[in-house]
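Hey, I was hoping to borrow your eyes for a little while. I've dropped the whole record in just underneath, so have a look:

——
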Amino acid sequence: MSTAAKFSLEKETAYRHALAEMVNFDGETPQPVTRSWPEPLGEAAYCGFIGEMVREIEPHTEADPVAIMSQALVMAGNAIGSRPNFQVENDIHRVNEYTLIVADTASGRKGVSRNQAQGPIAQSNPDWSQRIVNGLTSGEGVIHAVRDPIEKLEPMRDGKNGPITDYQTVVVDPGVDDKRLMVVETEFASAIKKMSLPGNTLSPVIRRAWDGGTEPLTTLAKTAHERATGAHISIIGHITAYELQHRIESTELANGFLNRFLLVCAKRSKTLPDGGNLSEGTRTVMASAMGKVLSRAAQVDRMERDKDARDLWHDVYADLSEQVDGLVGAVMARAEAHVLRLSMLYALLDESAVICQPHLEAALEFWRYCKQSAEHLFGDVVGDPDVDRLMKALHKNGGKMAKTEVSALYSRNKKTDPIIDRATTKGLVVVEKEHTSSPGRNPEYVRLTGN
């Protein structure tokens, strides 16, 4: 086995063990890992028309405004289509994005937030509304929804049963003209389960669809005869925190599936016993304005940054590109690409073909929320099974444990000092002595940093 392959296998095994530790290591009923809830979206994220729309809707719904914003951005990017683009070296980025709304059961108002986001876009763009589908089952199914025409070579005969004189190309399937596809999967845990089935091609097709590129989407399955060129696919998924933490396989983290999604933690924003009262007149005006914005955005070609945005990009690029350890790092590994696409969306929805500083600032603020969502969901799970066991135990025990208690977590033949040292090196814990009045009795404790 090559060194690279061995490293990849070790990395995947570490992720798998880490996720197993998240589920259960002491026989107790599994509980979602919880950390600090993300700070609310700052004012910078409410940039341009999309910000005005969410502000208009927010008082009249129990949905979380960040969930409305996230899904509105993704849907608008799909409705705009593949024409606007931004070149980075040899890669072409377009405004197709994926987002995963993470909320606990119906109390998170995931469906409500989706409907609020979709309303103005669908009302203003009825053709696009026909491109909304649900039910992620296989890569072949995704390709079929945006397939190219299928042609077949058939023989030409001299008479009904005469000899073959030539061949002609016949179109047996006209394909799909509109290459936009807006996938809404409200039971995303089901899609994750399907991806784990042998031979299922959903994960690689979804990854390639996000990447874009000039190569058509296709699979190597023997029975697959369809391909899709120029597909513009966006995905919205709904899932609970528990399902995401305990159903996602380590392979989906290691192979880059999950880091193509904008992770957004959402919760009920308020209680409205009688519902909202956003008037039909306001909805009509909003939809009309959205239609004009989307129509203009769809005509934009190559995009670029202005000087102020370029200077800001240079300032933040190193931080965005910095490698982060653990599961949070695996989930956040495409920070630069996501921020770029978000800034393109904010610019287009502000009726600008140029990314200006406020558009990039909006994208950075939205990405900050996504990063904090990942930290909330995956916390300090680092992919080191022993360290992750220690971290879970510390959180369970109020952030502090005696070293003797730490030793009891592991088998007797395992030394705990190296484990504590690794956690200390990562800045996760500190070791301190507790001074007592008894001579020679100064027990050592392991404490979470910040506790």
